[in-house]
Amino acid sequence: MRDCCICARCWSWCCTGCSERNRKEDVQPSGRINSYDGPHEKEPSLRLKTRANPLILLCAIAAAGVSPGQNPAGQDAAGQSSAALAPPRSGFSFPLRQTLTYTVDWRVFPAGTAVVHFEQAGDRERIAASADTSGAINMIFHVADNFQSDFDREKGCSYDFNKQTVEGRRQINSNLHIDYNNGRSVLDEKNQVTGQTKHLEAPVHGCLTDLLTGVFYAASQPLVVGHNFVIPVVDAQRTVPVTMKVEGREEIKTSLGSFKTIRVQPTADGGVVKNRGAIWIWYTDDDRHLPVQMRARLFWGTITFRLTGNEAK
After folding, report:
1. What's the whole-model pTM score?
2. Which residues, 6+ apart, have CB-to-CB distance to 208 below 8 Å?
């Protein structure tokens, strides 16, 4: 894996000789990146870890996945969440057909595009998401990922979560099936480059959501400032309770216009969310609770999704 950077002096791409010193930054949830500029400190370069995956940030609430041996609060000894997935609020309905398009920026640089499509499939809702890098980011590290999730429209329970990831030379296909009748989650994964396969099974209890659905399923819940709620997120061999903190109201501007929104921060007691970064999602302050902006502040920089398209197709 190459380490590439943008030189803070000349603002050009460099894949050799980058300074080992990371840029220190203070990122406010709503937007601005304030660079640290000490009185005697040399101007640092901006390092880009090329394994950054923009679509993974759509699944960012599950970045709370714990490392082996950890049991965050809300889990039993088997690593299962004790939180129950609440059904959608009364009167809420997932879209019969809808396509959301987001621009993705890394720091101040365009990084790619993400498209999320919703479609009713009988008594289930299907979410298909794709992400592709663009511009200079794509020249350094190509990403073309596709995710798909099926869940119950009435109860919210996820049934299948599929991923096809192409990230540089890495190509992985995985399928996660949740068998509620037998209380098992089943993961089948294949490395398309090496041919290696993986099969994992784990017990599950109760209704669960998956990594992708969780971001959008939260829109089905009442979003009341100061009132938090928990959603159990399943990922391979563990289920993690993720607390959705409803922090406050804020006006957000995108190319589609200005939106009155409610800012929500997903948190967990272990893993990436706690130790390596922070995530915020801005939902419209109306009955739709449409996610118009998402931001992840991680150790290698800040990535922001902004809604640029909303079509009934």
Report:
1. 0.75
2. 81, 85, 157, 158, 178, 232, 233, 234, 239
Contact 252, 245 (CB under 8 A): no
Q: Which residues constitute the domain of residue 171?
A: 3-311
For 68, the 3-state DSSP assignment is coil
Per-residue pLDDT of the chain (313 residues; tens, 9 = 90+): 444 433 333 323 344 443 433 333 333 455 443 332 333 333 333 333 333 344 445 444 333 333 333 444 444 444 455 578 999 999 898 988 999 999 998 887 888 899 999 999 889 999 999 988 777 666 666 777 899 999 999 999 999 999 988 878 888 999 999 999 999 999 999 999 999 999 999 999 899 999 889 889 999 999 999 999 999 998 767 888 899 999 999 999 999 999 999 999 998 765 444 455 788 999 999 999 999 999 988 777 888 999 999 999 8
Q: In sequence order, what E strands does the chain have?
A: 3-6, 13-14, 25-27, 33-35, 46-49, 97-106, 109-121, 124-133, 144-152, 158-167, 170-179, 184-191, 197-203, 229-235, 238-254, 257-267, 278-284, 291-298, 301-311
CA angle centred on 69, ends 68 and 71, rounded to 5°:
110
Phi, psi angles (nearest 5°) of residue 308: -125, -5
Which helix (H) or strand (E) covers residue 275, if one does?
Answer: helix 272-275
53-to-118, 199, 264 alpha-carbon distances in Å: 22, 24, 22
Separation between Cα atoms, residue 60 and residue 74, nearest integer Å: 19
CA gap 267, 225 in Å, rounded: 16
- Based on the structure, what is the number of domains in the chain? 1
